[in-house]
């Protein structure tokens, strides 16, 4: 008799119901569980369309499932590099690249063509290896042949043609935000010293004229010969008083308690202007702690920061994913620990070998360590749930 798959295993576990076989199927109808020797009335309801007569409700009954539900399967080993199934029904034929649609059907990869294939709904679907390369000629034999970041006939996407004379730059036809195209690059004509006001217009310092303090002459507002604040990575001067005639008076890459990281940002009496990640700042926001490492300060949450767990510079131990697979370090409430990736468990309670158990398919640890399916009956673990199927009253195996 045809059976429908139902996800009832967790309901059984929570209710304390143990289903051994379909010779004595479980009743999930309303009411308390059956005690040994007890009797209980079958639940009923009144059907208004039947003149108010009572109609019996057939209890929902479930049996242990033993056959792999689609699209799951148990696949044999192909070779040493493809060992096949470890557990019953542990291969998803709809998404497994080594067993796509059927056991042993491997989705190919063509590195020389920048092409791979991904198992989707049981079929190997061709896909390009990167977002920059596309198959714009619809010829699978030459793979993903078009670089959409620079191709003017396929700019950003296949078939997007740039206007004549307009280059494709970083997947965009032409330039945005007021920039102009010069020698295949987008530049700002308002401030570019080599393309000031237009392509190729190179600014040169005016003869016999010294720039104001902490400035140099360059392109400002599309005009050469204008003073501009020095910003070379080591120094970042700015004009805080809005008067360029006296130059740029504040270096934002130096500690200044009156202009800490920005003009007119003054630190409080109990604060210091210090170098934090991202620039100078007076201190940390409420709830964060200031920690120093290699002369750089950082605002951190000691309850979660792996590098400052519970205290500044207290590193949580590194986890070698090769030696301890599916496990990563954690900092919870300021205490270092480890955690398993979702779907994996450390069921042998030996952290040294990582999280070794796949809780989604393991029949001995299905969904949680120690939660075993009925292996003797051939019950598989499907997505972390021991397989149960619906069965009719009186059905037996």
UniProtKB/TrEMBL annotation:
Region (Disordered), start-end ranges: 30-54
Protein name per its UniProtKB record: Tryptophan synthase alpha chain
PROSITE patterns: PROKAR_LIPOPROTEIN (PS51257)
Lineage, opening ranks: Bacteria, Pseudomonadati, Myxococcota, Polyangia, Polyangiales
Originating species: Labilithrix luteola
Lineage: superkingdom: Bacteria
Residue ranges the record marks as coiled coil: none
UniProt keyword terms in alphabetical order: Signal
Range of residues in the leader sequence: 1-23
